[in-house]
């Protein structure tokens, strides 16, 4: 990562969380994202890829927060918050997709001549929509953040309660477990990619509640490599599909060698995924989430298995 492009830090929700506390944490993250985008606008183009990446990560953090508090908001307000974060992420998705695919291509062991590699890279660029990012795109994302912050001010936070957060965190953990079992049982690619999404939602939701020193960090820290390995599988699947539909195919033997290399990489990630999942889901996600909530609320250990 560029030395001048910093990662954001989530402002952990306090145990006496109110709607306004959630708003302050969300506004804090939006401010960090906006500052990075503004620096990116005045910085060198070499930093654009990392600015885009960190901005999209922040939108995932915000969307995980919206999912976490969704039971305490009206359906319309929750939908608007999700849409606003999705707009920012989507406006930069092409540039990120291109960067990831070119990086994945560069990790393969298949030997390619400079001309062949350049031709494949050009084809990938042609196939990816909105792949170029510039100062105008970053400025546009800043304006979308301003709109999102305005929406935060219009939300009615009065009905949000702590038990809404406890309920949704548990639902997220259980959903990730269900998708894991489905993906493992039937080798369902769609379930695998949905599982990836909800693993990351769960990870970011936990980060809104758990301080660095928490005992839960031991198993929580496994969620990041799990999400990364699932993301690698997703990137490989997209690149395999893209290689298959390029308008001007390269040498067939080269294409087959690349696909075989990608499939080998996919299998290695899949083995890693199952190793991590076996450790994470060794205890029911509902119990893990309940313990996290009790730690967040500072509930004495002898009462931790009582209902909230």
Describe this structure in words.
The protein is mostly helical and 308 residues long. The protein has two domains: 108 residues; 148 residues. The protein is built from twelve helices and no strands. Helix 1 runs antiparallel to helix 6, helix 2 crosses helix 4 and helix 2 crosses helix 8. The longest helix is centred in the last third of the chain and has 29 residues. The protein starts with 18 loop residues before the first helix and ends in a 12-residue tail after the last helix. The C terminus is likely disordered.
Q: TL;DR?
A:
By secondary structure, this protein is mostly helical.
Helix-strand layout with pairing:
Elements: H1 19-42, H2 48-69, H3 75-91, H4 93-106, H5 114-127, H6 135-154, H7 162-186, H8 189-207, H9 217-220, H10 223-244, H11 252-280, H12 285-296
Helix pairs in contact: 1-2, 1-6, 2-3, 2-4, 2-8, 3-6, 4-10, 7-8, 7-12, 8-10, 10-11
Protein name: CHAD domain-containing protein
Domain CHAD: 15-285
Organism: Marinobacterium sediminicola
């Amino acid at each position: 990562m560029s030395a001048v492009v910093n990662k954001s830090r989530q402002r952990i929700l306090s145990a006496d969380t109110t709607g306004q506390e959630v708003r302050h944490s969300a506004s804090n993250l939006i401010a960090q994202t906006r500052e990075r985008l503004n620096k990116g606008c005045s910085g060198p183009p070499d930093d654009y890829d990392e600015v885009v990446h960190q901005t999209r990560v922040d939108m995932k953090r915000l969307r995980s927060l919206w999912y976490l508090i969704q039971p305490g908001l009206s359906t319309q307000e929750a939908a608007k918050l999700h849409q606003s974060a999705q707009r920012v992420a989507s406006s930069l998705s092409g540039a990120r997709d291109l960067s990831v695919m070119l990086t994945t291509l560069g990790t393969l062991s298949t030997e390619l001549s400079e001309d062949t590699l350049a031709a494949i890279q050009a084809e990938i660029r042609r196939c990816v929509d909105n792949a170029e990012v510039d100062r105008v795109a970053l400025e546009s994302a800043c304006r979308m953040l301003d709109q999102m912050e305005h929406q935060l001010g219009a939300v009615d936070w009065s009905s949000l309660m702590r038990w809404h957060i406890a309920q949704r965190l548990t639902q997220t953990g259980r959903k990730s477990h269900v998708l894991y079992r489905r993906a493992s049982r039937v080798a369902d690619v769609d379930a695998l990619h949905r599982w990836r999404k909800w693993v990351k939602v769960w990870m970011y939701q936990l980060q809104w509640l758990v301080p660095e020193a928490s005992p839960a960090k031991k198993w929580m820290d496994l969620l990041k490599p799990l999400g990364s390995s699932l993301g690698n599988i997703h990137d490989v699947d997209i690149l395999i599909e893209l290689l298959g539909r390029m308008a001007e195919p390269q040498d067939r033997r080269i294409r087959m060698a690349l696909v075989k290399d990608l499939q080998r990489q996919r299998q290695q990630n899949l083995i890693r995924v199952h190793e991590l999942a076996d450790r994470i889901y060794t205890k029911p996600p509902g119990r893990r989430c309940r313990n996290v909530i009790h730690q967040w609320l500072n509930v004495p250990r002898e009462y931790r298995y009582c209902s909230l």
